[in-house]
Amino acid sequence: MKNTSHDKEADRKNHEYADGSRLNNRQKSEPELQNQQLHQQLLGADGWQRVINETYFDLKVQVRKSNQFAGQMQQANLAQMGISGYFADAAHYQRSGQHLSQNGDSILLTFPLQGSVHFEQQKRELTCHPGQFFIELSHQPYQFYHTQTAELQVLKVPIGKLSSHQRLIEQYFAKPITTEKGSGRLLQHQITHTLHLATSLTLSTTESQLLQQQLLDLIILTLHRPTLSLADSQVSTIKAAHLLRIENFIYFHLADPQLSPQLVAQACHISERYLHILFKEMPYTFAEWVKITRLAVANKLLIKGSHSSVADIGYQVGFTDQSYFSRIYKQQFGYSPKDTPSHHAKPH
After folding, report:
1. CA 97 to CA 118: how far, in whole Å?
2. Is 328 helix (H, G, I), strand (E, B) or coil?
3. Tens digits of per-residue pLDDT, 89-128?
4. Residue 109: phi, psi to the nearest 5?
5. How far is CA 219 from the centre of its chain?
6. Given strand 60-63, what is the order of strands in its sheet?
7. Helix (H) or strand (E) segment spanning residue 47
C-alpha cells in the first residue's frame, strides 16, 4: 500500500548524483521497496542529524547540499541491542573527542547493501563493499562517509554484551569481513529477517530477547572463525587457493604442536617465504592465526562438554603446556577453560 503524504517533500529533495542515480525517483530494488513500505518518512539534513544521533550516538553529520539531502531510517530495539535500515544520499560522519562518552560504549556492525562506504579509525582504514561488513568502535574517534547514495543495515551492540570477546573485536574492527559465505552470510540473513520482524510486528520481551541472543551467537561465531577470512580475503584466485590449502592442512593437523611455517609450507608445496608473503595480506601473522584457530576449536570442544578433562582438550588442539593454554585461553575468551559454559554442564 502506497503512502503519498510525503510525495511533495520527496520531489522537492529529489536530486541526481554523479552516477546518474536519484534517491527518490529511480527504480527501487526489492530491499529499497521494503524500506519504502515500512518507513515512509523522508528526512532533510536537520532531521537526519537528529535521527542519526538518536539511532546510533553523537556524530557530526555533513552533506553536500543541506537543502537537497534526503534520507530514510528504519529503527527497532531488541532488548539492549538496536537494529536499523539506513538509506541516504552522500554523507560524511565524524566522531571526535567531544562526542566520546565515558559509559554506554557500543560497537556498530555495518553491512552495505548498496554502494560502498569508507571508514577510518585508529590508523586503520577500509572501503567496505556489498558482500562485506565491518565493526566500528564508539569509544574511539573515527570518520565514515559514502560519496553516493547508500543503503546499509546496522546493528548496534553494547560492548558489555561482547566483553569476553574484546580481544577479537580489537583485532577485527575496521577490517572487512565477508558476508558471502559461512557464518558471515548467516549473520546478514538473520539481520535482514530480524529487521523485518522488528519493524512490522510488535514483539514481546521474550521474542526480542530470543532474536537478540540469536544475533549475538552469530556475531561471536563469526568473530571466532578467522579462517573464513583466509580464502575470502581480497587476494587473487591463486593466492586464495594456496590459503585454502593451508587452512585445510592446519585443521587436519591441529593436534601437532610442531605446526611450524616450514612444515606447513612443505606440505602445501610452497616456499616458507611465500607463505609469509600470503599472510602479509591477512590481519594476523601465521603464528597468530594458528594460535587463534587452536583456541577456537578448543572453545567449541569445551562448550560441547563431551571431554574427560581440560588437559585432553589442550592436547587435542596442540597445546602441550597446560598453564600456557589456560592463560592464553582466558585472555582470548574472558574465562578459563574449566569455566567455559558447557551444553552438558552438570547441575550443582
Report:
1. 20
2. helix
3. 999 999 987 767 544 689 999 999 999 999 999 989 999 9
4. -105, 115
5. 7
6. 60-63, 91-95, 142-146, 117-121, 124-128
7. helix 45-55
CB 14 within 8 A of CB 42: no
Tell me, yes or no, if the pTM score tops 0.85: no
Q: In one letter, which amino acid is 282?
A: M
Q: What residue type is 104 in one-letter code?
A: G
User: Can you name the residues that pair with 108 across neighbouring β-strands?
Assistant: 136, 156
Q: Which residue has the higher pLDDT, 196 or 2?
A: 196
Nearest to 57 by CA among 145, 154, 126, 130: 154
Report the SS3 class of residue 258.
coil
CA dihedral of residues 197, 198, 203, 206 (deg, nearest 10):
90
- Cβ atoms of residues 91 and 84 within 8 Å: no
φ, ψ for residue 152, nearest 5 deg: -135, 155
Distance CA 90, CA 70 (A): 9
Overall average pLDDT of the 16-30 stretch: 37
Residue 201, judged by CB atoms within 10 A of its CB (0-12, 13-18, 19+), counts as exposed
